[in-house]
Amino acid sequence: MKTIDLRSDTVTLPTPAMRDAIYNADFGDDVYGEDPSTNRLEKMAAEMVGKEDAMLVPSGTMGNLISLLVHCRRGDEIILGDQAHIFYYEVGGMSALGGIVPHTVTNQRDATMRLEDIEAAIRGDNIHYPRTRLICLENTHNRCGGMPITAEYTDSVRKLADRYGIGIHLDGARIFNAAVALGVPVTDLTRGVDSLSFCLSKGLSAPVGSIICSSSEFIAEARRVRKILGGGMRQTGIIAAAGIVALEEMMKRLADDHENARRLAAGIAGISGLRVELEDVRSNILVFSLENNDLTEDDFMGRLEERGVRFLSRGPRQFRMVTHQGIAAQDIDLTLEILKDVVG
Ligand SMILES: *Cc1c(COP(=O)(O)O)cnc(C)c1O
User: Fold this and answer.
1) Nearest C-alpha neighbor of 249 from the set 206, 294, 293
2) What range defines the domain where residue 258 resides?
3) Where does the pLDDT of residue 149 fall: very low under 50, low under 70, confident under 90, or very high at 90 and above?
């Protein structure tokens, strides 16, 4: 039986071109700045998103944590969405390791935070208050169902931040999905932020790695913080070689993932007992709910798993499916057939 793994785009396997690139890569010691493949990847990444410099890190979580640690001192406060990945899924690292205070603002259905809500959260100059140092954005927005946020919105947050002298970090784990979904150059989405991190290991299908991009000064400091966290790695060309293929070759197929997500959503919308908001499916993530009350959540997921279809629960009776390189249009059709069997 075939497994159709829709849990996440992190399950993507390295492509044959990546395996060849890893085999043939040039190596050196990256802690000394001597790994040629890593240096090439970092230069490419910085250029693609329009920043001065970039640095490879083992994961998106570390990319965000390092960025926050460079922006903030202990006791500083950051403003971020109440649905933000950094707030929800990163183990509280900012507080555990950085003494940083999260100040959450409601994420609207379109994944933005209202400008007036952000402004209201910014602290005044008062001896009782922590200092507001940073605003964090997320694009595409994971918990908001892969919603892309526009360049206009990002620029408007920039204007607000500038009025108060605050920085902006973008959790751009899937920033290239956002650019494809909106049909804009990625630099439109990154020009307004001081730092960003993005993942090589999701839709771009590399086995490991994320990248932080920012000014040269910021990245120099980020290299020190990465070392503190034990993230100074050695012959990282093993990772970077696949990352280069990810940036050169995998971008062009993200549109297929979005198309497959829409196909899946349209099918689910036609199955009685399931519900999906079609207009919310904008990239490769799809959130739907089970309205058929004869089935428990566990039964529903268990029966699909028995037929080879895997996905995640987002609780209560809500589920997430993510399309990626390992999912073809036929897999979508098969998933829809099985869903119909189970729910119908
Ligand atoms: C996956 C993800 C991350 C973290 O990536 P890891 O490599 O799993 O640590 C950060 N932000 C968002 C929005 C993500 O989807």
Assistant:
1) 206
2) 4-10+253-343
3) very high
315: confidence class by pLDDT, cuts 50, 70, 90: confident
Give, using CA atoms, the residue closest to atom 6 of ligand 1: 60
Say what the pTM is: 0.97
Give the Cβ contact number of residue 57 at 10 Å: 26
Cα-to-chain-centroid distance, residue 163: 28
Structure tokens at 196: 């960003």
**How many angstroms separate the most distant Cα atoms in the chain?**
64
Coil, strand or helix: which one is 286? strand
Give yes or no: residues 241 and 280 share one domain: no
Using one digit for the tens of pLDDT, what is the confidence trace for 246-258?
A: 999 999 999 999 9
- Are 297 and 168 in a shared domain? no
pLDDT(1) > 90:
no
Domain boundary among 250, 275, 306: 250
29 and 98 fall within a common domain: yes
How far apart are alpha carbons 329 and 41 in whole angstroms?
Answer: 31
pLDDT of residue 344: 78
Q: Is residue 203 located within the same domain as residue 324? A: no
What is the best residue among 171, 211, 229 to mutate for testing ligand 1's pocket, by most ligand atoms within 8 Å of CB?
A: 171
User: pLDDT tens-digit profile of 288-302?
Assistant: 999 988 899 999 999
Residues 85 and 144 in one domain: yes
Same domain, 154 and 198: yes
- C-alpha 60 – ligand 1 centre gap (Å): 5
Q: 86 CA to middle of ligand 1, Å?
A: 8
Pocket of ligand 1 (CB under 6 A): 59-61, 64, 85, 138, 142, 171, 173, 199, 201, 210
